[in-house]
Write a structure and sequence with these properties.
elongated; alpha/beta; Rossmann fold; 3-stranded mixed β-sheet; Ubiquitin-like (UB roll); 2 domains; 12 strands
Amino acid sequence: MNAPELDAHPLCQVARVLTWGALALLAYGGIGWLVARPWFALTTLEVTTPVAHVTEAQIRLVAERKVRGTFFTVDLAQVRDSLEMLPWVREARVERRWPDTLVVSLAEHEPMARWNDTALINRAGEVFVAAFDARLPRLSGPDDSSGEVVAAYRRHQATLAPLGMTISELSLSPRRAWRLRLDTGLELALGRDQADARLARFVALYPRLFAAAAGTPVVQPLVIDLRYADGMAIRMPGGAAPAGFVAAPAASVKPNAT
């Protein structure tokens, strides 16, 4: 048997495959050993974005618990996910920078209001849990309605702008009925249908109903129910009449004949 015939034997082909496989495994192991050496240890975590709510201590704690491995072996996705679990972090990005640095950029939530007294809601309608300022407006509604309530809050706030009023509370009931409280303490019942049109009617009529006469203080209403096709129901402190209404004349009383 000559050399070419020997080289073509199936056993020789198997031996060649095994040899190359062993060399590949050896090379892989060598590379794995090399990249795990302390020479490539990560020594710096750099935050490139300014943060208002996330503290240095929180970031350092994530680094101590979740940054494992070297420059080549660290799990960037795990570090990113851990950072995004911090209360105020909306989005995190983590990158390597040679030779020993992890570069972190954080996007924080911008709180717009409280949500159902247990969380906060940002300007994109996303709910998140964090410590909050009680001065923020209060929004509430069913669990799946945060985006809808935020959109309504923006529309209604724009509608109220000509009156210089702001919303302190806006709620959507499980039956999809809207109710809001203004910074003056006035409550408005808008109901389920045509809430935007009803609020626009209130804005148009309010200056006429509660215009102050010269030198006369205005008694502000407590509740206005706008769930009527052609009007509204107004509850005033102590049963007083709105300034713009003319009080009904008192009924005349005739003495009994004797």
